[in-house]
Amino acid sequence: MWEYTDKVRDHFFNPRNVGEVENPDGVGEVGSLACGDALKLTFKLGEDGKIVDAKFKTFGCASAIATSSVLTELIKGMTLEEAANVTNKDIADYLGGLPEQKMHCSVMGREALEAAIDNYRGGGAEKHELEGKVVCNCFGVTDTEIERVIRENDLRTVEDVTNYCKAGGGCGGCKGEIEKMIENIRGEQPEGAPKPKTHEGKTLTNIQKIQLIQETINEQIRPALRAHGGNIELIDVEDDKVIVAFRGMCAQCHLAEFTMKDVVEAKLREFVSEELFVEEDSDSIDESHEHIG
Prior knowledge:
Layout: H1 6-13, E1 26-32, E2 37-45, E3 51-59, H2 62-75, H3 80-84, H4 88-94, H5 103-121, E4 134-136, E5 141-142, H6 143-153, H7 158-165, H8 175-187, H9 206-226, E6 230-238, E7 241-248, H10 249-252, H11 256-271, E8 277-280, H12 282-292
Parallel strand pairs: 7-8
Antiparallel strand pairs: 1-2, 2-3, 4-5, 6-7
Helix pairs in contact: 1-2, 2-5, 4-5, 5-7, 6-7, 6-8, 9-11
């Protein structure tokens, strides 16, 4: 379950400006139902050249609805030049932040706005042409778009890029190229630039940290243990200490200590935070010893 801010919840449950503007000056459509997210943005200009009305229709999750709603509110009263400078970060910041895995929704909003402005400036051209070479064929993401999200959001890993624009989230064939793009952009940065982002650098709340730990256990650790008749349960999280209990065959295995350090702890450090360390729940150890005896 994602951790949403009150503003995200508000704009999800009470979205503003849903629908289509009558006789719009600009129309922008991005995404596709096949990819899971789609957004149509329409706007109307006043006599002073400022946006007087903006509406949206979207197919997507709570974040897609909330970011689209906020976008329409943000651009009202702006000139097209001002609206063109709105970034996905502006949208996310207005909402008090989004889960990293949902940042692509804010990027989709910015892309729809650009498409609508291009539509107006192009005299009603129906199709928004993608800039650059397509890198991710699964989601149709170009090198220009990937480079932009990397620079604007200081992204440092392929996972970050996937979270922000979905590139690399399909077959994975483009991950090597995305990695090279990240390295090239990082190589341009002067000395003293921020260090690469890790999960702990994202200022996770305790709830977010626990959710990531549980997801990693469910998706990366438990399947491997179950394949050998074992299982694992998350007992508690105390700061950077993760307390777990082994179940099934793992509870009786003399290699449990090895499994805890080389499998469980390694995966949690890879997917959540390098600061995490794992301890086995003392009660489960006692129960296991009693069972063996």
